[in-house]
Amino acid sequence: MSADEGARRDVREPHNTQESRAASGARPHRSGAGKGPSKGGPKTGGPKTGGKASGRGTAQPGPPGLAARDAATAILLKVVRDGSPLGPLLEAGGAPGFRALSAQDKGLVRAILDAALRHRGAIEDAIRKRLERPLDEKAHRLSALLHLGATQVLYLDVPDHAAINLAVTAAGRDRRTAKTKGLVNSVLRRIARERSEILASAASVNGAPDWLIARWEKNWGPERTAAILAAHADAPPLDLTPKSDPAELAERLSGDLLPNGSVRLDRLHTVSKLPGYETGDWWVQDAAAAIPARLLGDISGKRVADLCAAPGGKTAQLVAGGAIVTAVEKSSSRMRRLKGNLERLRLSAEFAEADVFSFQPAESFDFILLDAPCSATGTIRRHPDLPWTKREDEIVMLRKVQQDMLARAANWLKPGGILVYATCSLEPEEGEEQAHIFTKSHDMFEPMPLHAAEFPELQDFCTPEGFFRSLPGMAFGGDSRGVDGFFAARWRRLN
Ligand SMILES: C[S@@+](CC[C@H](N)C(=O)[O-])C[C@H]1O[C@@H](n2cnc3c(N)ncnc32)[C@H](O)[C@@H]1O
């Protein structure tokens, strides 16, 4: 996955997990111990096992639900075997089998994949313990069928018999897995029988690859790592940034007003159907993602560069704050999204579709916000595919990009101007360490540490060095539903 594609989506388009799930009626079980499934969720039909093995794919039309299951299998394979990010596979130009599905089936596929990836560690553990011998490393398709079947049995409101029959049918219809029907059937039946026990122990199973957990334990310690993993297991709430009057919006949407002015709703909302969507009264943005732009202070009437701007959550904040904003973004498709988002919000900015490494501003800026491309490990609760598609060497590669970008951006600031650097990463190499390197190598810049006196609501998030640091699992203003992991540092140019 490229750094760009790993970028979070602060301004969410109508196609998102929440709304798809709402559309499909596929409500996930709440994760955690002792939460047995309630039955009678989405009707996948009552597929009968059988059907003819048809080589690759499923040429014959199958029982209801099978097309969705096949699309989910193909997409899960793309993500966990090939390392493709999930988001683009679920978009309009995404995976072919997915594109052909009805809106309801698309919703079902999104819900299955979200749960399968969010709980991948626990599901893998449950399957492994119920196999007589380990699966062949190359048995990717069989593994995916077992994972999706187990996901439905453990985490979605689908009757066990329907979920299991569908998995067995899907196995039987493909030559590569036709002989494993018995195994699929017996493993999934055991998982259904032992559901309570599996869910009770799920929290103790690591929900990310070992290399990531080892990093977090080294950097944040075991307790905070456990809190990060617990936060990842719960789907996040829906946070909105109001264009104006947060209290009015919170009341209008019956949401909770967070101390930074974000409005928090539960996640089962269709974003584009919420009041104020059409009129551009708010945009989707995690409460932590809304902090870096605020660190610039009073920007009204000032020239602000928003570097690495798409999809535009921070651009919107800056424009709404009265600044004259130049939004720099190198990806054309993401720039289109940024423009579309600002259009909906009736906000205007100057758009520069350019690479930060070749961009040349006509004049210097009063303020610069650099929201650099990063591993995005702070957004795993919103993108549960990330742990399974990231590689550690990407973090090493991105460090150099971030360092060079910061150094380049520093040249474009007026004397007295303020620079904020931010990443949505849990990795100190992309946050704290970058800030220290910049301070050491730029004596024309003085750090502007954040203090609780200036931002009382951020007291728990100001580090001793004066950085902003959030970790998933940290409560904000008494709201225990957590925030994304973010880092931000701030400097003033001396002359
Ligand atoms: C973390 S996202 C930005 C999120 C955005 N600031 C927001 O709040 O909505 C990083 C963005 O940087 C863009 N990007 C990556 N490398 C870039 C470069 N060299 N020049 C300009 N943009 C770049 C990516 O395409 C991506 O859209």
From TrEMBL:
Chain segments carrying region Disordered: 1-67
Bias kind Basic and acidic residues: ranges: 1-18
Domain SAM-dependent MTase RsmB/NOP-type: start-end pairs: 200-494
A GO BP entry: methylation
Coiled coil regions in record: 328-355
Record EC number: 2.1.1.176
Name of the protein: 16S rRNA (Cytosine967-C5)-methyltransferase
